[in-house]
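Quick entry, no commentary yet.
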Amino acid sequence: MKKLILASAIMLAMTACETSTSSNSSSSGKVDYGFSCKVTRTDNSVNVYETLMGMVYDETSTVKLGDDGYYYTEIVTKESYPTAYAADDACEDWREEASHWNDGSHRVVCEGKTVTVYDYSDDADLEEIEDDYNGICEVARRAVESGEFED
């Protein structure tokens, strides 16, 4: 699930460039950049929902049974950006990524300030996916705590 960490890194890089978004201070006086991250799991899916500097990263992996009798994972990633410029930039990056998947498993839809990516994986291990999503939250939490987003 290297793609998930890549997606988080893209989101973090894009938010680092966005300087016009205001941020909040926590009770400790540290800036929290509007950060929140939550991983939820159901019987057949896992979701990570992260907010940071006016952006939203919302990805759900759902395990499904294919026509061939094998399980696969459908991955839907939605990224919402505070500006059209940031969304256009992310859209271009995702379309570039999708162009390298010759099997057509990546589909990118760009509308307004939202980029949605549809993907599939043979990996149907929800526990591993949940661990990866928790890793996304941890990477972002560390970046916020370290002040990586200081202007």
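second:
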Amino acid sequence: MPRRLAIGVVLTGLLLGGCSSQAAEQPARTAPAKSLDVNACHLLTPTQRHTLGLDQPPKPEGPTCHFEASANWAASVAVDTQRPFAAFTAAQPRAQRLDLAGYPAAKVNNAHGCTIVVDVADEGTLRVEALVRQGAPTAVGTSCDAARRITEATLHTLPTA
């Protein structure tokens, strides 16, 4: 009987240990919530675009804005009100977690470039994607280097809610 009890206790512990809540794993936003009622093409100022090397005119496409450089790299910025941060991280469990100026973020890097999604508001996220192709200036760095710089710039421009 003691052996059965011990096995029951171990199994119960394993079951309870596997019942952790996904929401409990989400880091808290320590910076003020941002407004998502914006035009994504306005999230990078002309000065920021120049500094980043994005020398082509922005191209709006719904809630997304595409930015390109004549130097073999491009990026997009989107305000996503359809999928909160927790949904993105649940769908991308291997995403690297980051903190960007008090905002929880998740980064996914693959052959299609680098995506950074930032928890800027309860009702949605800021999504930045960058792809640096062969032949881009070394100062641009990797796709994730470019995505991070663009994300940091847009966080300064995105208005507080």
